[in-house]
Amino acid sequence: MSERPEAPVLRLFPKALEAFGRHVRLITPHQWPAPTPCSEWSVRDIVNHLTAEQLWVPELLMGSTVAEVGTRFDGDVLDDDPAAFWQNAAEAAEEAFRVPGSADVTVHLSFGDVAATSYCAQLTADAVVHTWDLAHGLGADPGLSGELVDFALAEIDSWGDLAGTGLFAPALPVPEGASTLTRLLARTGRRDGP
């Protein structure tokens, strides 16, 4: 019996986490409170957000509901070693998606039940966008691959009206012929450049 091919997102998810993690490892102590393009979030807030997202992954892939997990991952999950807490959470999330059969489960999210691969796609797109946010806050090159940016734009385009969720700023206009990264950022209310 042949193995089923891996869903592309299961290959891209670790790459998105690594792109984010490269920037986490660059953060110096004085940069943690630095502002980012997410107007209400500092560098530490973005790392905390992505770390908490990864902490949820093993729980949800094992069948827990949002109500069962409760407030365990609310607030600041980074403690006094943010980079280490990020790395541990990212590794645990990657490992959870490598468990045989994990891609076939149904995940119970706050807005309903979805396929694990759809959940993974959401996490991947979020990591890509926040990698850009984090890099911008650090004054660094985001270094995002075209493959990750293309995937994130396609995924986020499938979500419909982002501004209506209250989680994103309104989309910005983009010039004709804009790059995929510029279109991705504009779709999420961010401007690529001054």
TrEMBL record:
What the entry lists under InterPro entries is as follows: CHP03086, DinB/YfiT-like, Maleyloyr_isom, MDMPI_metal-binding
The Mycothiol-dependent maleylpyruvate isomerase metal-binding domain covers 15-135
What superkingdom heads the lineage? Bacteria
**Pfam family for this entry, one:** MDMPI_N
UniProt protein name:
TIGR03086 family metal-binding protein
**Species the sequence originates in:** Kitasatospora herbaricolor
What does UniProt list as this organism's lineage? Bacteria, Bacillati, Actinomycetota, Actinomycetes, Kitasatosporales
